[in-house]
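Q: Could you fold this chain for me?
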Amino acid sequence: MKNAFYLLVLAAAFFTSCKKDDKPAPGPGPEPTPQTAIQKYVNGDDYIAFTYAGDAITQVTVKTELATAGDEAQFDVLYNTDKTIKELRGSNGQQIVPLYESGRLARADIMEQDVRLGQTVYNYENDQLSIATIYLSDGEDLLPALEFRFTYSAGNIMETVIMVADETPNHMVRAGSVKMEYDAHANPLYAYNDLLMLFWQVASENNVTVENHLNAELQAENKYVYTYTYLDNGLPASAAVKIGLPGTPQTDAAVDFIYK
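A: Sure. Below is the predicted structure, expressed as structure tokens.
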């Protein structure tokens, strides 16, 4: 499992991402409003699905290159009495254990059999996540392996810069970046950010319509264009995605929002 975690982080770098029987009873958990309650979000071959008990999320099923190296994993969601997440207990034997400071997610340990494999540290500016750094355990030390740096406008992430470790310990270099454009409709995933951040994903307030992917030298590498179909309440139902730089062959993909 430890090797799987290291491969997971390496997959994340190039993106640009024994189950126990004794289960503490889940707490009430965060309660998205009915208008934003998602049962499953599908983006191409990747997806994230939520199992509920009433309005509380009790289990998350995830399959992404970034968070699970392309394999499906299930996580039971356990809560503290203040409704913050106490632990995600994975079917792959791993645990994600978050720590909150002043009501905000500050860091999360990735554990297996009481051994820390790595840690994610979250930093904020103007009450918005500005940097998420993923560290790998090296004996008693933690060494930075991957970092996401976010810049915002009006609640939306306008650019994500991806940094990766080089051969010099504790030194990171730019690996690429993504610049985004948005529609004016509410993004239903925004209500799930505290949970999504534990899987190295951050949702903006609105829905992305264009992603421009750049390499470390700021040269265009790829482009994603999203065309949405909306429900009567204005939330997205699906999106057709065109992938490819202008003047190059295009490929098609799809995004689906399945509501509770």
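A (continued): The two ends are 33 Å apart (CA to CA).
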